[in-house]
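User: Can you predict the 3D structure of Carbamoyl phosphate synthase small chain? Sequence below.
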Amino acid sequence: MTSALSASWSREPAVLVLEDGTRLPGRRFGAAGTTLGEVVFSTGMTGYQETLTDPSYAGQIVLQTAPHIGNTGMNSEDRESRQIWVSGYIVRDPSRVVSNWRSEMSLDDALVADGIVGISGVDTRAITRHIRSAGSMRGGIFSGESLNIDSTEQLRIVQEAPEMSGLNLSSEVSVASAEVTPATSELVGSVAVIDLGIKQATIVNLAARGFDVHVLPQSTTIDEIRRINPVAVFYSNGPGDPAASEDHVSLLRAVLDAKLPFFGICFGNQLLGRALGFGTYKLPFGHRGINQPVLDKTTGRVEITAHNHGFAVDAPIEGVVESPSGYGRVEVSHIGLNDNVVEGLRALDIPAFSVQYHPEAAGGPHDANYLFDRFRDMVTDHLAAATKKDANA
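Assistant: Sure. Here are the predicted structure tokens for Carbamoyl phosphate synthase small chain:
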């Protein structure tokens, strides 16, 4: 176990600077230095390790609305990817002690090890309310030597940082080469997973449904997908603006043209929307956390779901419409109950559907875990229909 008092309690100063000129002094938490990114808030009461290691948060400075963070420490088993991806971290009261038998290091030590600049001791409620009013905005955390930079210069640095709109971050988080995880139940076949920022829990859930999971680099082509002879294709979650990922949209259209069953989550939902011919847009402050209510229009059930997205699909939430790109009938399958945002799409004439949230829920509720079963059933039905067609040919 780490020492009772972490480095974050040394009272070393730090400051959070928002692009509108707001300045909030606090204490250094994690590594010292400068970091820049889009400041967003996550409403999860737990699961901070899963949040930090979720590649969807690349390019973002994450604020935890829960006031007390870090009491269970960090461990290698619960990591959702190979590293911490957030650009920076904002908490109110980091735990002074680690109080879990599974902990391998403190949260502060983990942030330092991965070079993540953070800040504590700030009024996270006030920042959240400010973002909810003004919208997500660029920010910077300055500590150590960078704290001595003139305040006017600090603001200039923040205001010149890239905006999330227009950013393609898939290449930063994707695997460099293919990785295969064998099925852990009766084999259905191979699924080609385009890694746009996938979480380990997604791979585990796909393998549990009988898929040999081939996690492929985001630069994969349709010919490379065909070489593994997949029974389906999956697009993962991930960071960035879907409007800046036209190559992934073109690849997905090739998948749909080949009549391969498709399932996408989060970023994958936005890319399916664009492939079908709908637009996408940036939300004022996005949905992040593990307590977002969503209506499944098929069952009428309200599910509490895990979210992390700043963009959404622009499609009619009622009725059945024709795909502007010529893929037949499409309907919005799920709706966010807080703001009526599109949370799922289902194609009615081709085997494809997607949701805007994280059914693997790491961490979070398991209300939407059935979607992996729905995917498996869609694939097995498609295979059975193809076999019957061949038999009758």
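The CA atoms of residues 208 and 270 lie 25 Å apart. Residues 370-392 form the longest helix (23 residues).
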